[in-house]
Design brief:
heterodimer, A: mainly alpha, 16 helices, 0% strand, B: alpha+beta, Alpha-Beta Plaits, 2 domains, 4-stranded antiparallel beta sheet, two-stranded antiparallel ribbon, 5 helices, 39% helix, elongated
């Protein structure tokens, strides 16, 4: 995968040899090499040129978002293309899209942690960062969609002089609690995981400002094993708490639709279907971000081809689940015998929004099937392009679900089509600016890879194996007793 | 390789001008295996105020140090239950009961009929009860973990040592504090030498 000099080993770690663990860190056998590789990104005086270009672009898009939201607030939601039957369109599509993106980060950090998938260590930090930034983007949309944003606090049960409370029997309020809990817990998880790495940056910092900034956020971490003991417990608990949480979040998002009576929305398949779709789109976004990041910042030995290969396998599996859900929706529409349900689905595929439906199917069902081939799974340019297709497809999935069901409901007399305005499009594109601005700042100033975790999965970290040192023989006598703590 | 490079007198650069109280000794090791073997000996020697410092959690070191399992999960469980109960009462109060209570200000519940659903719709309350359970647990988990660890503590005597900075990079340390009842400067240093470290350093308080 890389050109190597005589000193380093050429390792293709995508080969599956039974009985042998594929290395997760390439061309490094010292812990200090991991530290140096990761910290170099933050410690360099200047970021790579491409970073500045990307950051300028992201800031440009962010200002588009700011302008569109400003215009919306001053003028009112009428600046969007919403109409009487289609009262949710781009805004809620974007909301569901961004919440979904976030799910891959939590899957990697929590679920793969519980399943002891050690390859997660190379990608979990920036996948979690992606989660947080995606949820920030997501949270923007319902906030501005309420129309009078200065009343957005009505979403929360705050004692007020009107003696007015939110309606807890509505899934929209469950959503407020689910998404805000999700954001808080993801932030805690991300930050807790980062504390030891911030301490590393603190201890290496040359300038006073860096030392102070990293020092404050490192909380005085000094690698104490008495601390590590509680830290590891806490981390395990957070993973165990985040796992049901992440499944609940997109289930609750799907309740926004599934608990209504609208044909095309009122289905029991929605919660699992939304969760699978969320993980599908999120992993595609991780690949989209990981491919350029590892090139740009020289992280190819830590985010190896095997990591990408594994992620592509997840995309394949979840893509199959999504494809299954699409076909099952059609089957149930026919099997239920409900004429409105039948119409809703035929209308999705062959009605006025047919093009959106078929973009969705080709991107989400056909594209991931190419990942059956190892050559495609391990080809950097191909996986990058395919991950973009999945991102596009998953945006259209939410658009199709939301808009086609609303535009053509029970009564033909109330039908209307949705056409986006420039503000709709500007807000959608601008959200990517917000996302990438935050992500690029993260890449520059925070440790992009969980150094402590990567070191812990290196063979040298095993006190009874490669890391045994000069007292290596000792391990056999006591090793067994201690391995269960 | 295993040269003991520093005695208290060798580390002038790291010490304040006035001789201060000794915080303790640190011993540096190269591999997790060396650290683990040494940690078992420190444990068996009966020291209480001592610690290992590693760049990552070393598997099995808790046992080698004789660390008791933390009570953290028990606290987190009760925090979670608090969240569940709080969420139930929040929803029941605001949507089901017509009570006038003082919560900082006087507040009143507001039961109202919507889609013919009963005022006390327990199934509809479950999602929020679940979310707040997780929220309370996670907040308690992180807060208590740092609290039990005595963090944030932005200053610590160990940060005086330049050598110790590698504890967050690639080296493994044992620290024995001067306040340990078994600590005797000469004897403890001798003892640390027997553990065969790469270096030993005295750290001032």
């Amino acid at each position: 995968m890389t050109t190597l000099d005589s000193k380093t080993l050429i390792v293709d770690n995508t080969v599956d040899a039974p009985g042998e663990r594929a290395p997760l860190v390439l061309n490094m056998d010292k812990f200090s090499q991991v530290t140096a590789t990761v910290c170099r990104v933050n410690e360099a005086d200047k970021a790579p040129f491409a970073w500045y270009v990307a950051f300028a672009g992201a800031l440009g898009l962010l200002s588009v978002l700011g302008a569109c939201i400003g215009y919306l607030i001053i003028t009112g939601v009428g600046v969007w293309g919403l109409n009487n039957p289609v009262m949710w369109a781009y805004d809620i599509t974007n909301f569901v899209f961004w919440v979904g993106i976030g799910h891959a980060g939590t899957l990697i950090s929590a679920i793969l942690f519980l399943f002891r998938q050690k390859w997660r260590t190379g990608i979990n930090r920036f996948a979690e960062a992606m989660t947080i930034f995606a949820v920030i983007c997501a949270g923007t949309f319902p906030g501005i969609h309420v129309g009078r944003v200065w009343f957005a606090y009505w979403l929360f049960p705050i004692p007020n002089q009107m003696e007015m409370w939110p309606q807890f029997r509505s899934p929209l309020l469950w959503d407020v609690f689910a998404v805000s809990t999700y954001f808080t817990v993801s932030l805690l998880f991300w930050y807790t995981g980062m504390v030891p790495d911030l301490a590393t940056l603190r201890d290496r910092a040359k300038g006073k400002v860096q030392q102070l900034a990293y020092g404050i956020f490192a909380l005085g971490w000094r690698g104490s094993n008495r601390h590590w003991h509680r830290y590891e417990r806490a981390y395990l608990l957070l993973a165990a708490l985040s796992t049901p949480l992440v499944l609940s979040v997109h289930s609750v998002v799907s309740f926004d639709f599934a608990t209504s009576q609208l044909p095309g929305w009122h289905t029991t398949i929605f919660p699992p279907y939304f969760v699978a779709g969320a993980i599908f789109s999120g992993f595609a976004m991780v690949v989209t971000l990981a491919v350029p990041a590892r090139e740009l910042f020289g992280l190819k030995d830590l985010i190896t081809l095997r990591h990408l290969d594994n992620m592509n396998k997840v995309i394949l599996v979840t893509g199959c689940m999504v494809g299954y859900a699409y076909s099952m929706e059609f089957f149930i529409a026919w099997y239920s015998g409900a004429m409105y349900e039948k119409f809703a689905f035929i209308n999705r595929a062959f009605g006025q929004y047919w093009w959106a439906y078929w973009i969705m199917v080709s991107c989400n069902v056909i594209t991931p099937q190419l990942f059956w081939f190892k050559r495609i799974r391990t080809s950097i340019p191909l996986m990058f392009v395919l991950s973009l297709f999945v991102n596009v497809g998953m945006w259209f999935e939410r658009f199709v679900i939301i808009v086609t069901s609303l535009a053509n409901d029970f009564l033909p007399s109330s039908w209307d089509l949705f056409t986006p305005t420039w503000v709709d499009i500007g807000t959608m594109v601008g959200a990517f600016g917000l996302f990438f601005t935050l992500f690029l700042l993260f890449c520059r100033y925070l440790p992009m890879i969980a150094m402590a975790e990567v070191k812990a999965v290196m063979p040298q970290a095993d006190p009874h194996g490669a890391g045994a040192g000069k007292h290596g023989h000792h391990g056999h006598a006591h090793g067994h007793d201690h391995s269960h703590h | 390789m295993a040269t003991i490079v520093t005695n208290p007198s060798d580390t002038k650069a790291e010490q304040p001008a006035n001789p201060a109280k000794l915080y303790g000794y640190i011993a540096e090791f190269e591999t997790p295996g060396d650290l683990m073997a040494a940690a078992e000996k420190v444990r068996d020697a009966g020291y209480k105020w001592w610690d290992c410092h590693t760049p990552f959690p070393v598997h099995g070191l808790d046992g080698a140090m004789g660390i008791q399992r933390t009570w953290l999960p028990i606290f987190v469980f009760f925090a979670g239950m608090t969240g569940t109960i709080a969420a139930f009462f929040l929803q029941a109060f605001t949507n089901s009961w017509d009570l006038h209570v003082w919560a900082g200000v006087w507040v009143t519940g507001y039961p109202f009929l919507i889609s013919g659903k009963p005022a006390m719709s327990l199934p509809a309350f479950i999602p929020v009860m679940f979310e707040l359970t997780i929220l309370f647990s996670a907040l308690a988990c992180v807060k208590l973990m740092f609290l039990f660890n005595g963090l944030p503590q932005l200053y610590h005597p160990l940060f005086r040592s330049h050598r110790f900075r590698r504890a967050t990079n690639d080296r493994f340390f044992i620290s024995i504090e001067a306040r340990d009842p078994k600590f005797l400067p000469r004897k403890t240093e001798e003892f640390l030498r027997t553990l065969d470290p790469v270096a030993i350093e005295a750290v001032e308080d």
